[in-house]
Amino acid sequence: MTVGIVAVLLVDTIAFFGDTSLVGFLTGTVWAPGQGAGEGGLYGMLPLLNGTLMIGVGSIVVALPLGLLTAIYLSEYANPRVRGVLKPTLEILAGIPTVIVGFFALQFITPDLLRPIFGDDRVFIFNAAAGSIAVGLMILPIIASISEDAMRAVPSSLREAAFGLGASKRQVSLRVVVPAALSGISASVILAFSRAVGETMAVTIAAGNSPKMTWNYFESIQTLTASIAQTVRGEVAAGTVRYDALFALGMTLFLLTLVMNLISARIVRRYRQVYS
Q1: In whole angstroms, what is the distance from residue 94 CA to residue 137 CA?
Q2: Residues in CB range of 78: below 8 A, 6 or more apart
Q3: Which of 154, 202, 247, 269 has its CA 20 to 30 A from that of 103?
Q4: How far is CA 46 from CA 211, 224, 255, in A?
Q5: What angle do CA 46, 206, 104 make, to 5 degrees?
Q6: Domains of the chain by range and CATH?
Q7: What tens digit of pLDDT does each residue of 78-129 get?
Q8: Using CB atoms within 10 A of its CB, is residue 98 exposed (0-12), middle (13-18) or buried (19+)?
Q9: Mean pLDDT for all residues in the chain
Q10: 3-class DSSP state of 186
Q11: Using CA atoms in the order 104, 106, 107, 112, what is the torsion angle rounded to 10 degrees?
């Protein structure tokens, strides 16, 4: 299946670059399909990559502290009965349809959370901050669950040795358990980031469809996935440049997530600690 997916993406991506410059695609700052000279339009992917990275970074800023603190509580503080209830409840969050999370961001996060704090004139109704918070809530179970599993895999002998030296519960958790589980925690963050950059509906609804070069989280942006979702409509004829551009964006997203997963695997191998 992987070979088939790559082959499908590759065929139309090559066709796209037969009509459009690869350099222009990688370095262009305007994404305007169907506009400009000729059928090709303006296909600079940097605004879409910019929006994708904004959502990825913003969602990690939201999910990492919450997920890590949740994992520490479940692993080190919660009793088995509480853990047995809280962990499945937390993982239910991952099963909520993404379109519902997008509507939650549009109807609650922006008007009731962001605008009262930062002002209606500064915060667009569609904005990257709401998209980041929404996606951060969606990837929180990934960080919390994988990090908690990594912490629970740390041998009890390390904890007992730290307690024997007079360390408190907090010191054992933060200075012994977390460093020992660092490879699993790092892997969870990178996998969560890969999940964030691949999110479509929640980002499309909450962050809008305005491809632009900006780092203002209160403005509307557009991600790679949102651009694909917007373009895949009935009026886009197969075989056109705009149609082939979808596959070029898909290949870009595929390579981005592939690189992140390879980095995650390398971190696990490099910093993994084996206890006998």
Answers
A1: 9
A2: 86
A3: 247
A4: 9, 10, 15
A5: 155
A6: 2-271 (1.10.3720.10)
A7: 888 888 888 888 878 878 888 999 999 999 999 999 999 998 888 899 999 9
A8: middle
A9: 87
A10: helix
A11: 100
- Higher-scoring residue by pLDDT: 221, 269: 221
Residues contacting 35, CB < 8 A, separation 6+: 41, 42
227: which 2 tokens? 């651009």
Tokens 């066709």 sit at which residue? Answer: 15
Q: How far apart are CA 222 and CA 231, in angstroms?
A: 12
The mean pLDDT of 30-39, rounded to a whole number, is 65
Give this prediction's pTM: 0.88
Please give the Cα distance from 145 to 126 (Å, whole number): 30
Model confidence over 49-67: pLDDT tens digits? 999 999 999 999 999 999 9
DSSP state of 42: E
Structure tokens at 273: 């600690």
Give the C-alpha distances (Å, rounded to integers) separating 108 from 70, 102, 122, 268: 24, 10, 17, 38
Place of tokens 């290949």: 251
**Whole-angstrom Cα distance, residue 130 to residue 174?**
31
Percent helix, strand, coil in the chain, to 5, is 75, 0, 25
